[in-house]
Amino acid sequence: MARNRTMSYFPSRREPARPAIDYDNHPVFSKRPQWRCETHRIIFGNLTRGGRLFDLSLIGVILASVVVVMLESVQDFNVRARSLLWTLEWVFTALFTAEYILRLVAAERAGQYARSFFGVIDLLAVLPNFVGLLIPGGQALAVIRLLRVLRVFRVLKLAQFVGGERLLINALRSSAYKVAVFIVAVLVVVTLVGAAMYVIEGADSGFSSIPRGVYWAIVTVTTVGFGDITPQTTTGQMLAALLMILGYGVIAVPTGIVTAEITGGRDARMRAAMERVCLRCARSGHDPDARHCKHCGTELLE
């Protein structure tokens, strides 16, 4: 008898699969009719053939609806096939509305699903066309449906390629203070430079106020360089050159901080994995991804 299991959207590669749901003895599903349990198995699970087919079909519909929204914004397509695009968009809206209602009906806890990340995204996927009835052009917000394609990692079992999201999140959290200090330092620099450019260049060169000068400094230090405001004096140009050189550091420093945290976290995790001791033979030095002792074959504890 096949086991029915549900999986998280983004499990790590080392994360074990969630236990099977026993619909007959489950405190919630056991009180529901069979069709609601089967709907839950198909919509919220992807290990059954029906569940995978449903999710893959959903992703295809999402991509098609986003293409339709994009084509609506192209004047030539909108003129030539306005009625067809309009019809397709409402067909997609009807499908997403029906799917959202089914998710609410099939969810173990409808309120919890509705407040979850994907629950909110699923709701937002339905609203744009209705918003467009009140606000012209509001249907263009339907591109938010593209976020629903994130389910492709769960459907196609590509979670192993994004299993490092926890490592990245931890690295960002660990480096948040350092990056914040660096950003504050940059803000101080651009404020001082912006004020200096206001004094040096003046309104004749476009530096009509200190905030305007700070805007120019931010654009320059980020190496964007719109060119709408440019220094005209030699002193101003020298200051601008220094700020441009500083801009390379603005890009490199935060990247280096986060990279160092990622490397440190990965190395620490590898050391911890290698230091695991087999409970049977008391040996260590196992590979980071080892599930069993390479000396005696006993299963290793995480």
Structural notes for this entry:
With 302 residues, this protein is mainly alpha-helical. The protein is built from 11 helices and no strands. Helix 9 runs antiparallel to helix 11 (234-274). The model is unreliable at 1-19 and 158-162 (pLDDT under 50). It is flat, with a radius of gyration of 28 Å. The longest helix is centred in the last third of the chain and has 41 residues, at 234-274.
Helicity, as a percent range: 55-70%
Q: With helices defined by DSSP (H or I, 4 residues minimum), what is the helix count?
A: 11
Supply the helix-strand structural class.
Answer: mainly alpha
Question: What amount of the residues lies in strands?
Answer: under 5%
- Report how far the terminal alpha carbons are from each other: 30 Å
Largest sheet: none
The helix-strand sequence is HHHHHHHHHHH
Could you say which overall geometry the principal axes of the C-alpha atoms support? Answer: flat
- Count of DSSP E strands? 0
Radius of gyration: 28 Å
Can you tell me the residue ranges where pLDDT is under 50 for at least 5 consecutive residues? 1-19, 158-162
Mean pLDDT score:
77
